[in-house]
Each structure stands twice: as C-alpha cells, then as structure tokens.
C-alpha cells in the first residue's frame, strides 16, 4: 500500500519536509516512489505537484492526516 506522507530534511533548527509517495513498510527517511511536493513549516510555504498527487490518489494512495491538512489548506 502506498501513502502520501512527510519526509524530514534540512538541518537542525531549520527543518523542511518533502511530501512523498512511499510504501507503507518503509521508514520515514526510506526510499520514496516519487517526490510530489514540499512543506516549510517555518515560513508556512507549500509547493505541491498536483498532477502527481492526483495520480497517486486515483491509484489508491492514502494521505496521512498531516498531509491531508496541508493539501486542504493548499
């Protein structure tokens, strides 16, 4: 099963999150299927690649609650 979830990157005190499509069994920093956007909580910016997100949602991917809230705001 595939999920849309956040993958942490950046450095200490300056975190960024990538929104990725990833297999459920993978860990947070594991290998992702595709990067579909990013979220910057410090500047509250979001970039999302909408066609890729819609593709994975149509194929049955489940977004996590945090990703669902981010996409709802965007």
Automatic annotation (TrEMBL):
Subcellular location, record wording: Plastid, Chloroplast
Biological processes annotated in GO: mitochondrial translation
Swiss-Prot/TrEMBL keywords: Chloroplast, Plastid, Ribonucleoprotein, Ribosomal protein
GO cellular component labels: chloroplast; mitochondrion; small ribosomal subunit
GO terms assigned for molecular function: structural constituent of ribosome
Protein's UniProt keywords contain Ribonucleoprotein: yes
Family the entry assigns: Belongs to the bacterial ribosomal protein bS16 family.
This protein's name: Small ribosomal subunit protein bS16c
Annotated organism of origin: Cyrtosia septentrionalis
């Amino acid at each position: 099963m595939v999920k849309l979830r956040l993958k942490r990157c950046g450095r200490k005190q300056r975190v960024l999150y990538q929104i990725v499509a990833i297999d459920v069994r993978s860990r947070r920093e594991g290998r992702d299927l595709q990067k579909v956007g990013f979220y910057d909580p410090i500047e509250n910016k979001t970039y999302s690649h909408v066609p890729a997100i819609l593709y994975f949602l149509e194929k049955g991917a489940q977004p996590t609650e945090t990703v669902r809230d981010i996409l709802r705001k965007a």
